[in-house]
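Translate structure to sequence.
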């Protein structure tokens, strides 16, 4: 039995057993293709549709290498997520893995961090969805929603209606069931990949090498600086691990989905970047909010294609909202089921097989946040939370290899602990580039979380009260 105290560790067997308890058991209904689509759905969003221009402005044509470098930085953490997800097929992602390796207090900290990362991300992405919806309406029909219902009060509006609508629609879909959500996401992933294929085909049909000289005007420093920005275009593969408990065959399918989604997105990112540079210069893209549309307009003379790209961006961001919000509900669900947050929120609706009460509560709170808070304020804390989770997951692999060497591991990170330590190094390096204000806000958030843990989580933890026996 695990030791009492704030660093008590959950036994892996008890984690799996609790997931099977009546009334708290999620429905295993998602296969490998749907899990992989969840990863692609979470990764490909505003990143490729927006950040490519910023990266090209910093690194020039060498932004191609920046995309590859950012992918390499992610792959080490992806391998660690794959091992833990296949070995501990329970909801909660990094929170659950930390509970089994580093103890309850650290698990609470990482869970509280993930609530910030996922919940705030959903609100921020929903706001971006509203902006892209307006861009699509303008490009396709020449109309746009008035500022009063399309922007937050600080940005000159009353409330952001499109952000509210998309969050509540996704909430309804997630309540209905994970298989329904996964099918809708699969359709949206197909649409946005088709839009990127359209762009790649048109770009290569009008391709020129003139924009590739000079290739690296800012040298190696420019490549790494752009990679630090582009890294965040890859965030999302970790959301696949939140579906561990609802995967039909988690041991086999989760490693494929986590690593496969990262590989698929990297291929699309590199091809899209090469194609964009083949028809437009970095200067033409760097100041545009829609660099791919700008490339088609200025480079290929296809202004009509801007509507297609805008539609692709709307669909892409919708699927990101879906998958990230799904991940948020499963992490919150796991923390409630362990008693660190109110257990009544972890009740599974017997009709739909989803934590409906929890999902609706989070959906309402996030929609209010998205309606009233400006995007810049919302996204400031997301990046550091993601990188912090990467550090803990990589360390978790190393710890669990030592504390539970005989535990079944359907997938094993090769050359451990070398590769997990490299993953830690990449994450720490990127965290060191973040501004001091971000660190201060992150510290305040964690202090608030420790206060809640001391007042509630510590006293109600099932591990400590004996409910975990």
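Result:
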């Amino acid at each position: 039995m695990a030791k009492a105290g704030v660093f008590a560790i959950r036994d892996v067997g008890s984690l799996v057993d609790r997931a099977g308890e009546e009334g708290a058991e999620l429905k295993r209904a998602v296969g490998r293709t749907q899990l992989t689509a969840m990863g692609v759905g979470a990764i490909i969003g505003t990143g490729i549709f927006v950040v490519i221009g910023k990266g090209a402005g910093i690194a020039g044509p060498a932004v191609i290498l920046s995309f590859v470098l950012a992918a390499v930085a992610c792959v080490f953490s992806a391998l660690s997520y794959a091992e833990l997800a296949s070995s501990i097929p329970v909801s909660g992602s990094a929170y659950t893995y930390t509970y089994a390796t580093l103890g309850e207090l650290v698990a609470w900290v990482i869970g509280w961090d993930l609530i910030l990362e996922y919940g705030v991300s959903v609100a921020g992405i929903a706001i971006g969805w509203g902006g892209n919806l307006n861009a699509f309406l303008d490009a396709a029909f020449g109309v746009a929603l008035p500022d009063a219902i399309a922007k937050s009060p600080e940005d000159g509006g009353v409330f952001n209606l499109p952000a509210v609508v998309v969050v509540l629609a996704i909430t309804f879909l997630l309540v209905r069931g994970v298989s329904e959500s996964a099918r809708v996401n699969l359709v949206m992933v197909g649409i946005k990949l088709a839009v990127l294929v359209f762009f790649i085909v048109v770009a290569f049909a009008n391709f020129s090498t003139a924009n590739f000289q000079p290739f690296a005007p800012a040298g190696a420093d420019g490549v790494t600086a752009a990679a630090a920005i582009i890294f965040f275009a890859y965030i999302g593969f970790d959301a696949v691990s939140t579906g561990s408990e609802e995967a039909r065959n988690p041991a086999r399918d989760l490693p494929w989905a986590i690593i496969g989604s990262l590989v698929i997105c990297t291929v699309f990112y590199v091809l899209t970047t090469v194609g964009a540079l083949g028809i437009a210069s970095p200067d033409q893209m760097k100041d545009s909010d829609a660099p791919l549309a700008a490339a088609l307009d200025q480079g290929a003379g296809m202004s009509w294609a801007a509507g297609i790209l805008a539609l692709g961006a709307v669909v892409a961001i919708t699927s990101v909202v879906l998958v990230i919000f799904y991940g948020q509900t499963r992490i919150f669900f796991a923390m409630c089921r362990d008693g660190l947050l109110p257990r009544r929120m972890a009740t599974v609706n017997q009709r739909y097989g989803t934590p409906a009460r929890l999902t609706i509560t989070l959906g309402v709170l996030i929609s209010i946040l998205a309606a009233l808070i400006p995007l810049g304020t919302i996204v400031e804390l997301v990046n550091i939370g993601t990188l912090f989770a990467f550090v803990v997951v990589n360390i978790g692999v190393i710890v669990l290899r030592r504390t539970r060497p005989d535990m079944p591991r359907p997938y094993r990170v090769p050359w451990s602990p070398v590769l997990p330590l490299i993953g830690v190094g990449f994450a720490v390096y990127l965290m060191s580039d973040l501004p001091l204000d971000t660190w201060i806000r992150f510290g305040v958030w964690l202090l608030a979380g420790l206060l809640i843990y001391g007042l509630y989580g510590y006293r109600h933890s099932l591990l400590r009260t004996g409910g975990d026996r």
